[in-house]
Amino acid sequence: MKVLKFGGSSISNSENIKKALAIFNQESKNQNIIVVVSAFGKTTDLLQLAANQSIKNISKAQEILNIIKELHYGIIDDLIFTNKDKTIKEVSIMFYNLEVVFEEICLIKKLSDKATANVLSFGERLSSFIIYSLANETLDTHHIDSRNLIITDNNHLNGQVNFKTTNHKISSYFNKSKHIITVVGGFISSDEHGITTTLGRGGSDYSASIYTAATNTSELQIWTDVSGMFTANPRIVKQALPIKEISYEEAIELSHFGANVLYSPTLYPLLNKEISVKIKNTFKPKEAGTLISNSFNKSNKIKGISHIEDISLITLEGVGMVGVLGFSRRLFDAFFQLEINVIFITQASSEYSICVGVYNKDAERAKQLIDKVFNREIESNKIKPTIIEKDLVIVAVVGENMKSHQGLSGQMFSALGRNNVNVRAISQGSSERNISAVINKTDVKKALNTLHEQFFEKETKQLNLFITGVGNVGKRLLAQLSQQNKYLLDYLKLKIRVIGISNSRKMIFNKNGIEIKNWKEQIETGDSASIESFFNTTKKANLRNSIFIDITASQEVSKIYEKYLQESISVITCNKIACASSLNNYKKLKSVSREYKASFLFETNVGAGLPIIDTLKNLINSGDRVHKIQAILSGSLNFVFNNYNEKTTFFRIVLQAQKEGYTEPNPKIDLSGIDVARKILILARESSYEIELEDVENNSFLPKESLTANNEKEFYESLSKNEAHFQQIFKQARRKNCRLKYVAEFKNGKASVGLKHIESSHPFYNIEGSDNIVLFFTDRYSKNPLLIKGAGAGAEVTASGIFADIIRTANQ
Questions:
Q1: How are strands ordered across the β-sheet holding 151-152?
Q2: Hey, CA dihedral for 649, 654, 655, 660, is it positive or negative?
Q3: Rounded CA gap, 340 and 290, in Å?
Q4: What is the pLDDT of residues 151-196, one digit of tens each?
Q5: How far from each other are the two terminal CA atoms of the chain, in whole angstroms?
Q6: What is the pTM of this model?
Q7: How far apart (Å, rounded) are the C-alpha atoms in residues 699 and 338?
Q8: Which residues are the active-site residues?
Q9: Inter-residue contact 2 to 218 (CB < 8 Å)
């Protein structure tokens, strides 16, 4: 014999009931079965609502009852044929009796627990009789009211089962019954006087368990709308996986912490008898589901992650608690008096404080009573008044085999810390089967996804990008991300989603990821952009592994990096302003990055896609020391002087460099030398030298008129007007058989930038196009410097440098 339980969602309408009927038709081919059913769909909620309305508005209760009638009569009309008249007659009697109950409630203007239990029982009484009538048309089916078999005390809404009487009644009945299918209603029961009671929340599952244990059946099947228990709530964690096998204890822990697939007391009657439970999907019956038993797979140290919402922490602390006998007893007696369920407990080893978790709805009255119980100690300042923190969530990592693996708690809290999830309290039971943490409600989605990635997605890591600045470089970065998406997933196990994009006018966000192929069309209909609102939206999204990417040259954008880092949002930038700002600001950003465990990467600040800063970091981290740096760090200036001659004009070459994407949006930044000065400053700072931008000697080759130009038009006009000046510079170099190169140098703690004549024997002489070159002279590379050379300008290579920083962030 087997017991099959079908939840409300599995029998919510005619179509679903057909699927359920097909399942117990199949299961009954080889053995007799007991079918336990919940009320149809949301019937229980509607019954409760109607009962509440009947106190003051009987007509409103009747309106709700008509909705319930329409559902039930509709199912009868759709599915039942030979037994239709008999079924309608019995169902009509039940609805008449229900109307009488509503009238009685209206008359006395009071809804007692006894009356509530009576009203709610009609859900299962109706559904079980209709299901029986349907099944009996083709199969040998019987129906019995569970109130005749499951006996409880007189707690009408949460009856405590009298197992001795109940087991005797159930076993006696089914020992005599020879019917292939017996349909019973879950949730409902009665006391020893025959008064209707219910088994409380999740009572239908519990009823099925009671029938299973009493009849010693081989298996309990719980049919619902999901394919078993999952490693996390699939509505919150899209990557959640079905759990194939799990122990009783693990299932109880997960269900206690909000895994709604199973009501935890369901397993209690089955534990000692070791009767297995299988959770299956009514709508996908061929899927394996979850098997709950003692012969579970012990290889997985973590089985699932779950949570409980709407939690408040109540904290009591003070020196008056230390070493005082009976203090905890007085505290928990107070909770007992109020019938408040304590969900979470933790106490400092010093006994200075004790913290308990309760539901939000119970917090205020708990505080009032606790303050009253400990009034004498509070008035004498031995302990502090009770502190309440509301709107919290308990997150739990569950696994039977956790105790055999070291460092799991470390992994859990490190992962949460990296993503700026603040833990308010921690608890771990002596069984080491559960590690619980209390966090803010706003962090629950990020926390669950972070922990799931940590323990179940070792192969794949998800990054969430927020990009501001989608000009030449930004467009190419998005194109590269789109092109490499499959490669990253297949070979680097990285799933990269672009969540936010902003230009100077508009911004768009999609928490599920923006479709990169048509981002241009989307952004045109986006919201008005602002630096602060982009930050606030990114912060509010509160996604794990978030990265803010600045592809602008904006000073205002650079000022907000610290805010991102303080939210544990990594920052990647090709904007040099922040790292070339005051030394204090540079050091502060580095410090905040370390404190909040958020990456702060700016490889493209110096050499576009060249790994200059990364190589320098590796030198410093390995204990090497930099003495001198010589470099050509401006791809745009190198392009200009490599192509300028007596047959061209300086104005035309600079304009060409700008059009080809080698210069900053404002080419004056390149030609004035300030861009190169910032780059050598950054390299000096990354070499552990403390230096300010004003300490960099800038030997500009531009005439004063160009340096003081107020806009791009004036700047280009000044270049054209001073062509003779530039020709003179060019001819001086040619007379010496030298080439013009704009060189940055750091030596003996001092930095300088300027145009130099480079002889043919120098490594810089043959640097062509827009290439950059850097020579590092260090302790290890004293005679022959470490040389890095390659394309140092252009939107494509700059985008690839940002891309490389994204990969570095993923690996950190």
A1: 151-152, 188-191, 196-198
A2: positive
A3: 33
A4: 999 999 999 999 999 999 999 999 998 899 999 999 999 999 999 9
A5: 55
A6: 0.72
A7: 80
A8: 679
A9: yes
